[in-house]
Amino acid sequence: MRNFIPIKSNRDFSRIHKTGASYRTRSLVMLVAPSKQQCTVLKDTAGTVCAGFSLSKKVGNAVVRNRIKRRLKEALMCFAGRATRNVSVVFIVRSFETEPSFAALCCDMEYLLKKAGIIL
Description:
It is built from 3 helices and 5 strands. It has about 120 residues and is an alpha/beta fold. Helix 2 (about 60-80) packs across helix 3 (about 100-115). Residues about 40 have low confidence and may be disordered.
């Protein structure tokens, strides 16, 4: 089961990009804004995470970009259950020379989520 709600509309991406706070690591940028989406399925939980992923064509070919998106989604599923507040998050992957491993992405994502106060 997915622990987060995917962001798919351009309007939501634009809103988060304009109003969201930015947190950075070497491989990821995270934009965080208060969630405006009402979720009836996850209403009883303490925190609901709405998440979107953005990768430039500079990151690699389609196979590499999709692999990184799958890894990011899997990493977020591990951490989204520990969310303490309702937020909308957009992860932007920076270009790199060598493809980051799953462990490196998990480490960076956990650091960013803790820095933003989304997880403890």
